[in-house]
Specification:
By secondary structure, this protein is α/β, with parallel strands linked by helices. Helices cover 29% and strands 25% of the residues. The chain binds flavin-adenine dinucleotide.
């Protein structure tokens, strides 16, 4: 599956990375049906709920219960859209997404879980830790545990509201984790006994274990809210005295998220989508729903528990394959008797099936084996992004890098330009071919300075909207780097030939919407453009700007532009974004980038350089460039050549995006890396610098990279403070040196 490849195949959209959808992805990774597959995720990592209590007790690290859905999806040949689904229109077959246009589908499947009931009660949202969505619970409860342990106050009062399996496990596991503080743990449940729906023998064992661990069980009282009373926080009850607490865990039943609210399909009274035994919506064959977010028409009392979502997985896989082949669908029958295994946190567990209960450390070992085996099936990559043995490396399938890593090499460009006749003399041109820079600039007959720049790239991923957004953010950056204000844009979008007209239109619409999503907030007006057809998607922009505020360029050419060559010896080089997008996007294409790494890289490339450019002006930067395809080294090289000076870069100070260092250490490289590496010829590199784990970042091609500012040393503290206050990074990566005496304009060192 090539990055950027839209197809004419039926479009299947999986919404959410729940327990059933990860199975679909695994199955499609092994044997891919002919389908144009998209996965929509509100977060790149899904949580396996069965191991959450083990995380709380300290048995597992968070990474052990996280399913990194991104590489799994990549293996399945899926396009991943990182955005929250807001709802859908079944008649029009469009899925609404937060912050971007709706996307069309032919088949849709929902596996988005649930949220915890009762969050609307007074004070609960503010004072309690809700346990669903489960993804948010993990971070929140880790923070709470760390805070309690750091505080060290003895006998913290912990209230767990909800006496189902989740509540019971959390009460025991918190009790164990905070044992050194001797917590007072109470389990509050409005029913007559804990664990409704579980066998009597199992309930009895849990009650006995609670008594042994001094966990108070408060039954038959309903929590109706929470509030602050002076320094105290209390849980308000329907009867009797309020209960004071230091930590309140809210693990009451499940209600639906709002995604189905206005879809017009039949929902149950809690807002869950009603589905037939085939897991299809009651009135629509093209809508599937599984796990917590669905209620079975024929078995509406089926509990909202992960094991049902897990068991629905194989039926969903079979039915998605069957519907694509127009074959008969299978039916799901929820298991009535299932193995229940409750983690008591201390290394033991209580289990039950067929009315019998059992208990011990062997039960916990058994649960641990089952859970780990389940997880193993979905772990494509290890912590460093290496394939786990269960997932062999992905076949290359002819992918080539996109973004700013798809360029002709700097040497090729230089040679081609050198073969041309010298540029035409034109005194109105301030920055042009005789003085190459990030953008061209000229003076109009009226004395205004105008700036123009053009950029085009192949997609670095197969989400057309995202490609458009990044392309625009990247293109305007050249204008910011010159101290100019981008004002107008022309777009060129070439869509892949061979698509139906409808798909071409959709591709074009998504790209243009992405461009607008980046340009509009910056006050840049898209005024026109050009479209075409070619083998792959190509997105280009010409940007036109001015110096803003009526600034004029004096006739001597010493304008308020920030040319890349206006360096002064002794200035510091300050970088405003971390490096590593080249290797990260390459790895993502190869299914080797971990979800959280890619999320951080995307946040970086989507960040505009407008604020950094303002800081450049405020602190009197004299020269600025933006770091793109030629990498940090290539762009610094251009600066020092233009200035006739030298520079020293410090690899120890290079800021790296998460995962970039690990990938480079494993030999992963963007396609353009080798081209950029040739620029190291003639560079004086210290021996320790070669060996430094960040050395290769010098030549990693960046897409929509940061600005590099040349700043006088006394201005550096103010520059760093302002950059960081505005949300940018500020890293002093080098220093401007005088003209070289040994021929090496660039030196690469490594601070101790
Ligand atoms: C503490 C605790 C322990 C539990 N232990 C167990 C147990 O041992 N066994 C058991 O069977 N059940 C357990 N449960 C219940 C279990 O958590 C849920 O029933 C289960 O997670 C539901 O699985 P699911 O696949 O339906 O959805 P989820 O696992 O909740 O997955 C939903 C996915 O969709 C994504 N998503 C959500 N909304 C959107 C959106 N709008 N757009 C895009 N993506 C979205 C989420 O990020 C997530 O990846 C436990 C619950 C708790 C609170």
């Amino acid at each position: 599956v090539k990055a950027g490849a839209a197809t004419n195949l039926p479009r299947l959209v999986l919404v959410g990375g729940g327990h059933a959808h990860v199975q679909v992805l695994r199955s499609f990774a092994m044997d891919r049906p002919p389908v144009d597959l998209t996965v929509v995720l509100d977060r790149p990592v899904a949580i396996y709920s069965g191991m959450v209590p083990g995380l709380v007790s300290g048995r597992y690290q968070a990474s052990e219960l996280e399913i990194d859905v991104l590489p799994l999806a990549r293996r399945a040949g899926a396009r991943v859209i990182l955005a929250r689904a807001e709802g859908f229109a079944p008649q029009e077959r469009r899925l609404r997404l937060e912050g971007r246009p709706a996307i069309p589908y032919d088949l849709i499947s929902w596996n988005v879980g649930s949220v915890v009931a009762g969050l609307g009660l007074p004070g609960i949202c503010e004072l309690a830790v809700p346990t669903r969505p489960i993804g948010q619970l993990v971070r929140r409860i880790q923070d709470e545990i760390a805070a309690s342990l750091a505080d060290g106050g003895t006998r913290p009062r912990i209230l767990v509201v909800g006496g189902g399996a989740g509540g019971v496990e959390l009460a025991f596991c918190l009790r164990h984790r905070l044992a050194e503080l001797q917590p007072k743990v109470s389990l509050v449940h409005d029913g007559a006994h804990l664990l409704p729906g579980f066998a009597h023998d199992l309930r009895r064992r849990v009650q006995e274990a609670a008594a042994r661990k001094a966990i108070a069980v408060i039954l038959g009282r309903r929590a109706i809210g929470a509030e602050r009373r002076g320094h105290e926080r209390v849980l308000l009850m329907d009867r009797g005295e309020p209960l004071p607490f230091d930590l309140l865990i809210w693990v009451t039943g499940a209600v639906a998220t709002r995604v189905f609210q206005d879809c017009g399909l039949e929902l149950d009274k809690l807002g869950f989508l009603m589905v037939r035994p085939t897991l299809q919506a009651k009135s629509r064959d093209d809508v599937f729903a599984v796990g917590d977010c669905a209620t079975l028409l024929e078995e509406p009392g089926t509990p909202k528990a992960g094991i049902f979502a897990v068991r629905e997985g194989p039926v969903l896989i079979a039915n998605l394959r069957a519907i694509l082949r127009r074959r008969a669908l299978s039916e799901y029958k929820p298991q009535r008797k299932f193995l229940a295994l409750l983690n008591l946190g201390d290394g033991s567990a209580i289990g039950g099936k067929w009315g019998f209960a059992f208990e011990g450390t062997w039960v916990m070992r058994w649960k641990d084996r089952i859970d780990r085996k389940f997880m193993e099936r979905f772990q494509v990559l290890d912590e460093d992004g290496a394939y786990r043995p269960s997932f062999p490396p992905m076949p290359a399938m002819g992918q080539t890098c996109g973004g700013c890593a798809a360029k002709v090499g700097p040497a090729v460009l230089e040679r081609a330009l050198a073969r041309m006749a010298p540029p035409r003399e034109d005194s109105s041109v301030l920055l042009g071919l005789s003085r190459p820079d990030d953008a061209a600039a000229w003076r109009t007959p009226g004395g205004d300075v105008l700036v123009a720049t053009i950029d085009a790239f192949k997609p670095f991923c197969d989400d057309a909207f995202l490609v458009g957004r990044v392309a625009a953010t990247n293109a305007v950056s050249d204008a910011y780097a010159k101290g100019a204000r981008p004002r107008y844009a022309l777009a060129m979008v070439v869509v892949p030939e061979g698509l139906t007209e409808e798909r071409q239109e959709e591709e074009l619409f998504q790209v243009l919407s992405g461009l607008r999503a980046a340009l509009d907030p910056l006050g840049v007006t898209l005024v026109g453009g050009h479209s075409g057809l070619a083998a792959v998607l190509l997105v280009g922009l010409a940007i036109f700007g001015d110096l803003g505020g009526g600034d004029r360029a004096p006739n001597d050419g010493r304008s308020t532009l920030l040319p890349k060559g206006a360096l002064r010896v002794g200035q510091r080089l300050v970088l405003t974004k971390a490096l590593g997008t080249g290797v990260l996007f390459h790895a993502a294409m190869m299914g080797q980038a971990r979800g959280p790494w890619l999320e951080a890289a995307l946040a970086s490339v989507l960040r505009s350089n407008v604020a950094a450019a303002a800081v450049a002006r405020e602190v009197g930067a004299t020269a600025v460039t933006d770091i793109t395809g030629f990498g940090l080294l290539g762009h610094v090289r251009e600066m020092v050549h233009a200035a006739g000076l030298g520079a020293r870069l410090d690899v120890g100070e290079l800021p790296a995006l998460p995962g970039a260092e690990a990938l480079l250490a494993r030999g992963s490289r963007s396609d353009f890396h080798d081209q950029n590496s040739r620029l190291l010829q003639g560079v004086a590199v210290q021996a320790e610098a070669w060996r430094h784990p960040r050395f290769e970042l010098l030549v990693d091609p960046q897409t929509s990279g940061g600005l590099l500012l040349a700043i006088d040393p006394e201005q550096v503290p103010a520059a760093l403070a302002k950059l960081r206050a505005g949300g940018d990074l500020g890293a002093v990566v080098g220093e401007v040196l005088g003209p070289p005496t040994d021929g090496a304009r660039l030196r690469v060192a490594c601070s101790p």
